[in-house]
Design goal:
Number of strands: 2
CATH class of the largest domain: Mainly Alpha
Helix content: 55-70%
Structural class: mainly alpha
Strand content: under 5%
CATH architecture of the largest domain: Orthogonal Bundle
Number of domains: 6
Length: 687
């Protein structure tokens, strides 16, 4: 497909930027403004805004001015770019004043010299208008609402960061408002110490500011929660909540605040602070009080989540009692899946099967399908072993797990193996047919051109922003493009956004995108050499790295099989001592090399299986370590391995085992002529 010169300029700009030639990149983005494609023009506009507002060390002032002059000659349609070019050229009087939106909290007045900018203008338009007013010296007092609303009543982003830099450069010293803005921006960067220092200035100068803006109050709560001033924060929030409840003030008029919402924020963040202090009963009381004031269903669910999370440390009866109270009133059952999984682990590890059944009766129609299937399968297994004598028969429980549409392949496969059923996640081939729905061709072409112009490494954020508007067939086109460029992890994430939509029937091509087979020859050969089923090694590598060969985890694990360097050195030494290839070079191993990484990963998994004597326990040890697996297993040696997995105390390791096994069932089904239930049954039988 051909592409017009101005359309191509955007991608040429990306390549220049990759080569660190920012001046050339900007010239290309300027040309792209003349593109006939709206997505290209919008992307070029965003790039030019970023360069013109970048620090002088990123894009020198002289180059900014030259670019601004060229932009004004182009006379683009985008008002923000014209205003930003004028700002760069110091033509401040040509930029309109911000106006006060109807009903806003502020009381400032605007200048009359250059007209007014519409209240519905974009954040960047308003940021530049505010900046120009500051530069002209005509800006109303920055304590007034129109200016403060921009920093305290909206979600923060790059426009606020840029404007704050202008504000600070022009007006030295700290005011209550400037310190509060500085604190919010620090929270945006997760810099809680500097945020707390800035907020302290506001607390000294004008604490009522926090009660005027819920977003600002929430950021103050986060600063207290994650700083060393938790006790002070808990006491202050309690005091303020009391003031609002009784109608007392804070020494200054706080006029039209939403008292109910602000009390909710004070109680909710007070609970979070007390939880951080490990004062659990005080935290639970605050969350319970906040729940009655929650402004919407999402915030109500957040309170319930914290209440139930805290109750996990209480006696089992107390948790079940709270679950019976709050389960019927929560709105999004999937929000609580982690809580219910942790409670299931607690009951399984202590053999409290009756309590597990009681919990299931409470949540089976309230939790998400995946959690309901999990509980149903565990109870079916317990019933089949005679460990529980009440409730439905094992077969009925397995049937519930098997037929639950939201169940993972893991629990469906296990249930099917007991029922003598077969898991068929795909429609029969005769019923599989192409879908219509390719309507957003302009947006699709925009993203696909990243790959045509060798810019695939820039494509994912643009694809991610487009996903909500695209149909599933369009999402599939994008996923195939990313897979074709060997960007497997991004492809998996993109197709997941489509198949997870309610009511969508997954097609085979979707499954193959969800469970791709890159490095096929390498992985299959190493699986054969290590006496591993191919589907297990594929499932492990997909779970570990999404097939990114150079990925490094926060813990330091490297590459496709996510090996720790010390583990890799140990395995490499064992291979060399047995006459194999010596991968060490000066005590180091190139773990980003797929050939090296997959060989060592397969060898390591084989070593774990031989050491612990079980594929399932080996997978658990791959994530959690051999020592822990032995300790966990010795605590419940009488349980079969599928129930043993449910007792693992680390949530990450417990879920890791399920995910690898679920992926293995998918790989066996898609590529190796195996049934899902057969794959998982064979693994639990020790292969």
């Amino acid at each position: 497909m051909g592409i017009a010169r101005n359309d191509a300029a955007f991608y040429e700009g990306l390549r220049a930027e990759r080569g660190d030639d920012r001046v050339l990149a900007v010239s290309f983005y300027e040309k792209a403004l003349a593109s006939s494609l709206e997505p290209v023009k919008k992307a070029a506009l965003d790039k030019l805004i970023l360069f013109l507002t970048a620090s002088d060390t990123v894009f020198p002032p002289a180059e900014k001015k030259r670019s601004a002059a060229r932009i004004l000659k182009l006379s683009p349609d985008e008002k923000i770019l014209v205003d930003l070019a004028r700002y760069t050229l110091e033509q401040y009087d040509a930029i309109a004043e911000p106006t006060l939106p109807a009903g806003a909290a502020g009381t400032g007045e605007t200048a009359e010299a250059v007209g007014e900018i519409a209240p519905e203008a974009s954040p960047w338009e308003r940021a530049v208008a505010f900046g120009a007013a500051l530069r002209r010296g005509t800006v109303y007092n920055t304590e007034d609402g129109i200016f403060m609303d921009f920093f305290f009543a909206e979600t923060l982003g790059l426009p606020q960061m840029w404007l704050f830099g202008e504000w600070e450069a022009l007006y030295g010293g700290d005011t209550a408002q400037k310190a509060a803005a500085k604190g919010r921006l620090a929270i945006l960067r997760s810099d809680y110490g500097p945020a707390m220092n800035a907020f302290s200035i506001t607390l000294d100068l004008d604490p009522s500011l926090f009660l005027r803006y819920p977003e600002l109050l929430g950021d103050l709560g986060r600063a207290f929660q994650y700083s060393d001033r938790q006790r002070e924060g808990a006491e202050l929030f309690s005091q303020w909540a009391g003031f609002l409840e009784t109608g007392a003030g804070l020494g200054k008029d706080i006029f039209s605040i939403d008292i109910k919402k602000q009390r909710y924020m004070l109680l909710y963040f007070g609970g979070r602070i007390e939880r951080q202090r490990q004062r659990y009963s005080e935290a639970a009381a605050l969350f319970s009080e906040a729940l009655a004031l929650a402004p919407d269903a999402g915030q109500a669910d957040a309170c319930i989540w914290y209440i139930l999370s805290l109750a996990l440390n209480e006696p089992v009866e107390a948790f079940i009692s709270l679950l019976s109270e709050y389960g019927p009133v929560w709105k999004d059952g999937s929000y609580f899946s982690d809580i219910l999984d942790r409670f299931s682990q607690r009951l399984c590890s202590t053999g409290q099967w009756k309590e597990l059944y009681r919990t299931f009766t409470l949540i089976k129609d309230l939790a998400d399908g995946s959690t309901a299937a999990q509980y149903a399968y565990i109870l079916g297994r317990v019933r089949s072993l005679g460990l529980l004598r009440e409730g439905p028969e094992a077969g009925e429980l397995f049937r519930t797990a098997f037929e639950e549409s939201g169940a993972s392949f893991y629990y469906r496969g296990l249930s099917a193996s007991f029922l003598g059923e077969s898991v068929e996640p795909l429609p029969p081939r005769a019923e599989t047919r192409p879908e219509t729905g390719l309507e957003h061709w302009e947006e699709l072409d925009f993203i696909l051109n990243f790959f045509r112009f060798d810019c695939g490494d820039f494509a994912y954020p643009y694809a991610q922003r487009a996903l909500p508007e695209l149909s599933v067939p369009e999402i599939r086109v994008l996923a195939e493009a990313f897979a074709g460029a060997e960007r497997w992890g991004e492809s998996i994430r993109i197709i997941s956004a489509g198949v997870n939509r309610n009511g969508y029937e997954v097609q085979r091509q979707d499954m193959e995108l969800l469970y791709p087979r890159p490095f096929t020859k390498l992985i299959e050969e190493n699986a054969l050499a290590a006496e591993l089923p191919r589907e297990i090694l594929f499932g492990l590598i997909r779970t570990e790295s999404f097939f990114f060969p150079d990925i490094v985890s926060s813990a330091g694990a490297v590459g496709l099989a996510q090996l720790m360097p010390a583990t890799a050195l140990d395995m490499a030494g064992r291979i060399a001592r047995q006459g194999g290839h010596d991968y060490q070079r000066d005590g180091e191993i190139d773990l980003k090399n797929p050939d090296v990484n997959v060989h060592l990963g397969a060898w390591y998994l084989n070593y774990l299986i031989r050491t612990v004597g079980s594929p399932v326990q080996a997978l658990i040890a791959y994530n959690g370590g051999i020592g822990r697996v032995r300790r966990w297993r010795s605590a419940r040696p009488e349980l079969p391995e599928d129930l043993f997995l449910e007792t693992i105390e680390f949530t990450e390791t417990r879920e890791y085992g399920r995910r690898v096994l679920a992926a293995a069932t998918a790989y066996g089904y898609l590529y190796y002529g195996l049934s899902m239930e057969g794959v998982i049954a064979d693994i639990y039988r020790g292969l």
